[in-house]
Write a structure and sequence with these properties.
11 helices; 10 strands; eight-stranded parallel beta barrel; two-stranded antiparallel ribbon; alpha/beta
């Protein structure tokens, strides 16, 4: 019967004949030099994931906040159907307390449509009482000089929401840029990437080009790069989300990426969960 020493010698000889000893030796030396190969670091995202309040237009605040908590989403753009413009200070305080109980922060108000100075005044006063520093708004073109004046007075940021080919004002990022580039630098856009694409534009290229005036983003996917395009779960449509997330990192975008889900709005919960999961998986949030 072979002893262990004889067996080992024969095994090494066999390995030499097969040319395996250099491989084994090199592998062993590599293991000694680097016993644990470090994993590549996760990408650091300067942006945050939130929810556009319009997603829950058919649901009350309690349902909205419970859904956000289950999704591990902590930021909400406040719509007036959850917190009316004429809310008292006590109602605003109660609203924030309810949000905090679900680990949610209201980071902005809007979109708010503004056709005249009175509506603009109401919106700015409302945002101030709510305690946010960002208004997502849709002012008439001729109202922009007054919005510029109010932004200076209140020291707010003002993000104009894009609406694609559905309405004439602010159909895409280029239009919003052209109407705001000479105004106060705190006036820019809420880049709705779905509507931007529906107006024949490239939201990835537009984010890269106009990022200095992008203060909020509505993330969504659409079925077609045309007016016929409709909302669909993120990742199933025409938007290149890996490229979009890469450009967010490149330009060091530090604002919100808020899901505005517009499919099955009376029963959106599965689609919301799928969309949030897809975006989180891509961006390592």
């Amino acid at each position: 019967m072979q002893d262990r020493r004889t067996f080992f010698k024969q095994s090494v000889a066999g390995a030499c004949m097969l040319g395996l000893v250099p491989f084994v030796a090199n592998a062993r030396q590599s293991e000694i030099n680097d016993p644990v190969k470090p994993k590549p670091p996760k990408a650091v995202n300067p942006f945050h994931l939130g929810m556009a309040g319009f997603t829950f237009v058919n649901f009350d605040l309690d349902t909205t906040l419970k859904t956000l908590e289950r999704l591990d989403v902590h930021y909400l753009c406040i719509k007036n159907f959850h917190l009316p413009f004429d809310s008292t200070d006590e109602q605003i305080k109660a609203f924030h307390e309810k949000c905090a109980a679900h680990k949610v922060t209201g980071y902005a108000v809007g979109p708010i449509y503004m056709k005249n100075k009175e509506e603009a005044d109401q919106a700015f006063a409302y945002a101030q009482r709510v305690g946010v520093k960002l208004i997502v708004g849709v002012p008439e073109y001729e109202l922009l000089p007054y919005v510029d004046k109010q932004v200076k007075a209140y020291d707010f940021h003002y993000a104009i929401h894009l609406h694609g080919p559905d309405i004439k004002t602010y159909p895409d990022a280029t239009d919003a840029w052209e109407h705001t580039k000479d105004l106060d630098k705190r006036i820019g856009m809420c880049l709705d990437i779905g509507h931007d694409l529906r107006n024949g534009c490239d939201p990835v290229a537009d984010m890269k080009k106009y990022h200095t005036r992008v203060f909020d983003i509505h993330i969504k996917d659409v079925t077609e790069a045309s007016k016929a395009g409709t909302g669909i779960e993120i990742g199933r449509g025409k938007i290149d989300f890996p490229a979009f997330i890469n450009v967010l990192r490149k330009v060091n975008y530090t604002g919100m990426c808020s899901l505005e889900y517009e499919k099955d709005m009376k029963d959106p919960f599965l689609g919301i969960a799928e969309s949030i999961g897809y975006f989180k998986a891509l961006s390592d949030l």
